[in-house]
What does this fold into?
Amino acid sequence: MIPELGHYALILALCLAMVQAIFPMIGSLNNTPGWVNLARPAAWGQFVFLAIAFGALVQSFLVNDFSVLYVAQHGNTQLPLAFKVSAVWGAHEGSLLLWALILGGWTVAVSLFGRSLPDDMLARVLSVMGIISIGFLSFMLFTSNPFERLFPAALEGGELNPLLQDFGLVIHPPMLYMGYVGMSVAFSFALAALIGGKLDAAWARWSRPWTLVAWVFLTIGITLGSWWAYYELGWGGWWFWDPVENASFMPWLAGTALIHSLAVTEKRGAFRRWTVLLALLAFSLSLLGTFLVRSGVLTSVHAFATDPERGLFILAFLSFVIGGSLMIYAWRAPSIPRGGGFAMLSRESLLLSNNLILMVTLAFVLLGTLAPLLYDALGWGKISVGFPYFNTMFVMLMPILVLFMAAGPLTRWKQQDPTTLLRSLRIAFILSLVGGVLVALPMLSGSLSAGFAVALSLWLVITLIISARQRLQNKQGLASLVTDLASRGGRSYYGMWLAHLGVAVFIIGVTFVTQFDVEKDIRMSPGQDVTLGDFLFRFEGVESKPGPNYQSQFGTVRVFKDKQEIALLHPEKRTYQVQRNPMTEAGINAGFLRDIYVSLGEPLGKGEWSLRLYYKPFVRWIWLGGLLISLGGLLAASDPRYRMRLATKRHTSSVTDGPIGQGSQA
Amino acid sequence: MPGFVRYLLPLFAFLALAGLLYKGLSLDPKKIPSPLIDKPAPTFSLPQLYAPEKLLTQNDLKNQVSLLNVWATWCGACRQEHPVVMQLAKTGVPIYGLNYKDKRPDAKRWLKQYGNPYRANAFDEEGRVGINWGVYGAPETFVIDKQGIIRHKHIGPLTTEALNRDILPLIKLLQEADG
Amino acid sequence: MNCFRQLFIIIALLTALSAQAGLESFDFTKNVDEKHFINLISEIRCLVCQNQSLADSDAELAHDLRKEVYDLMDKGQTDAEIVTFLVERYGDFVLYKPPVKPSTYLLWFGPFVLLGLGLIVLLRTLGQRRKQTEPEFSEQDKARLQEILGKQDKDEQQSS
It folds into this structure.
């Protein structure tokens, strides 16, 4: 009964999505307020039904209703409660439902916080979001229904993929989806503005906080995914440039370019054509990622069980949404005004350069990800493109980006006098060079890469300090920091500051861990000691222990430094009841400056085991960087100037916006 | 470039990408073609399954169009393709087996139970010959011409469909070729 | 078929991810340097896995190939020779780092060509923008923004 309820709720949600997509758009184009006003209730209704459907699936998992095929495949009576809930999005069908629910949530948020938008604009935005929702809901109902029944019902469920029975994977997908789907808001704003012919300041102002929030979620999602891979996969890696990882990195890159480009568009009205294209691109890449992960065209470590038929459906939908939006772009873009002029050296020009580097980065990630497919399709043979390619390219492009990143905040809008800029940069340049050379000296690290990374980070940090000093000098010193934070534009600035600091931290983390990590595979018998760097590892053996739904080979390793015990680690090998394959759980001693990481290999008889020991310096800085970047984004999104006044609403509530482009043609 | 065409570029780029993705749906990323096609069969010299004192080498495959079928008892798909291989053997095509990373008694029992379609089996206990032949998963089937050159490799279980479509026509063609 | 495929993927996923290479059986005290060995095998793709290197895979074939690579290294073969050995048998697919040759120029040099083109467009745009006097937003635009956002924008124009 409950699953049928969920199924009907999904169908009703689809109907409401259709109402939301069709009527408000038509109404906004031919001035029918009654139709325009349908947008909001339809969006709300859709969300309510999606929530019911989602609740029904959760309930089916909680009560172990194995007459539902999806629950029978991925649920299990022995599953701990938290994982029964997260099992909902543990596989293809349910994760789509989460996607749709999150889209419904974003739609409601837009309709709530968008009350100050002109009605016709809001109607168009919601309509575009409705179209996207139609695509996903019909995809679910026609090819991937999570409520499909199984007859006769199974007595016991299969099992949630043991890899997913982990806290990291409980929260990683929702965060990532919040980011992917959140990009649809910027997309819908852009498309609505293009359809209405008004790519004006209000559009830029409006898109910015939404884009920032979506981008923050994406950043958190990616960071979590990397952290999860590190502690769960047992080989100490944190990024492999796997197609699935790239699928999340590409919209992030486009989103990063977009938030920078939006800054210019909001401030100076410039780059409008470019910004709107980026807004379309960011969400298009989210959709592309969905296709790549679920269609099976690429081989990946963590893809969903795939199916070409589903791939065809997503591809058709993708073509409609992306192709359609790019057609509208081609139609409208020529009439978009260019906006304010600026000098060769100005904040605008630096932000544009930053966009160029980000786009080239995006291009090589896309090219590398799709190259195996491209070469196969063209009959050029099968190739693999993996981390050596991506790392080489990334390392070549990132320093250029960092150079611009540092100069950006010190540069004025419109025009910057090169001599003053060079004066402030000179100090930063000398200091970072000295720092880098010192670190690269043989007595310190002897690593050129480490020296280079330190120089880059210092370059970022010092320019940030200079920039903050300049900002606070105008406002009488450090005491005004608090008032500055409350001012309009203040949090935008400090958000940028934090996020850029995060990049500096990230650079150090990545470089140091790749340069200085130590790894050892070793055969150990109980009581045996082994040294790795400054550490002594004592293996105390492995015992068998039962878990809630698995049997654990529970290892014990003590780590000593200078004869002091510093860590007691328990690497495990778990065998889950249904899917008998063993899963490794690494034993990790985390620290600000280093991790000690032990994973258990195979039993070799007589109590002996193979073990993998790692010393990973600065590895936490990678995720700390991601965290700072996310915090920065949140701070910027909370800037008071994005809080629109509702009082002024009355003046703009007409749907008669006049001919296309009237408001913006100069 | 006229002004408006510039704004069509993103659309064109996307259409090209969509075309590629469409093509991709019908490709299998896990099928890896062998670089050994049209190259002489790698040399090997392995004890035979039933007669360990006798060696099977690449020279035994020469002067006839033959198949080399890589199989093992631990391989489920080998069991699946076995009836097709049996059927093929009845048509008179010489089939040699490469018993890959297997145990001798297991292999003998398996053949006794399901039938033996092979002229002879090379027993590759350590899988070294398999590496030389670029084997990455059993079952795999090579078609070798009269000069001992590899002409085709089928990856995965043989099916009647694959036989009729690819392998039998190729064998016929190679048999007609002189040499 | 579909079911078979799903099953295959699940199995591959699990075996692939419970990765433990088991390098402990190799002797790194003689001809072969452990770090060098790991670096080489981590750039070689395991053929049977979803997307994993020889260093990380626990598949049977990965074990065999690791041993093969170790033996070749032990005999004093160079990285290039070992890579050629593998490519001759399995094709370019085994290399995570595609070799630079005409068919991969697109991959290795394409992004830089794009960077060059982008730079040209960027410099041209910047050149045009310098001469441009078009207002940031039209007066109508600004009025509309004021109307929507209220008057709060004015103070901000002065700050930052």
User: Anything to note?
Assistant: Chain B has a mean pLDDT of 89. The beta strands of chain B are 45-47, 55-57, 66-71, 95-100, 120-124, 140-144, 150-155. Chain B touches chain C at residues 32-36, 101, 126-128, 130-134, 136-137 (CB under 8 Å).
